[in-house]
C-alpha cells in the first residue's frame, strides 16, 4: 500500500479509531522491542511502527488544532498576530 493511500485511509477514520490504532501500534512496538534481542531482522518493522505512530499522532494533533481554531473563531476572539487598539 502506498504512503498516500495509507494517509488517506488514516484521515478517513474518526479520532476514536485513530486512538485505538495508536494504542495497538504502541503495544505491538513494545512486543517487538522485547523480541528484538533474539531476532535482529525486525529492525525495519520497528522503524515502520514508529513512523506509523508518528503519523497517527500528527493527524490527531492537526484535528485538535483545527477544532481549537474554529472554536476560537466562533467565540469572536481576535486571531493571533492582530492587536486591538
Question: What would you note in describing this structure?
Answer:
With 85 residues, the protein is mainly α. It has one domain (3-67): Helix Hairpins, CATH 1.10.287. The chain is 74% helix and 0% strand. The protein is built from three helices and no strands. It has helices at residues 3-12, 15-35, 43-74. The longest helix is centred in the last third of the chain and has 32 residues, at 43-74. The chain is elongated. 1% of the residues are buried. The model has no long low-confidence stretch (mean pLDDT 84).
Q: How many β-strands, per DSSP? A: 0
How many domains make up the coordinates? 1
Order of helices and strands: HHH
Strand count, sense and closure of the main sheet?
none
CATH architecture annotation name? Orthogonal Bundle
Q: Work out the radius of gyration.
A: 18 Å
On the 0 to 100 scale, the average pLDDT is 84
The percentage of residues in β strands lies in under 5%
Low-confidence stretches: none
Output the CATH topology.
Helix Hairpins
By secondary-structure content and strand pairing, the structural class works out as: mainly alpha
Number of helices: 3
Describe the global form.
elongated
Observed structural traits:
85 residues, mainly alpha, Helix Hairpins, 3 helices, elongated
Helix-strand layout with pairing:
Elements (H helix, E strand, L loop, with lengths): L2 H10 L2 H21 L7 H32 L11
Helix pairs in contact: 2-3
Kindly summarize this structure in a few lines.
With 85 residues, the chain is mainly alpha-helical.
Amino acid at each position: 500500500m502506498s504512503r498516500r493511500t495509507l494517509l488517506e485511509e488514516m484521515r478517513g477514520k474518526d479520532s476514536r479509531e485513530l486512538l485505538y490504532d495508536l494504542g495497538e501500534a504502541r503495544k505491538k512496538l513494545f512486543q517487538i522491542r522485547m523480541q528484538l534481542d533474539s531476532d535482529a531482522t525486525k529492525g525495519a518493522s520497528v522503524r515502520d511502527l514508529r513512523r506509523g505512530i508518528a503519523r497517527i499522532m500528527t493527524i490527531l494533533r492537526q484535528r485538535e488544532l483545527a477544532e481549537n481554531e474554529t472554536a476560537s473563531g466562533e467565540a469572536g476572539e481576535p486571531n493571533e498576530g492582530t492587536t486591538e487598539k
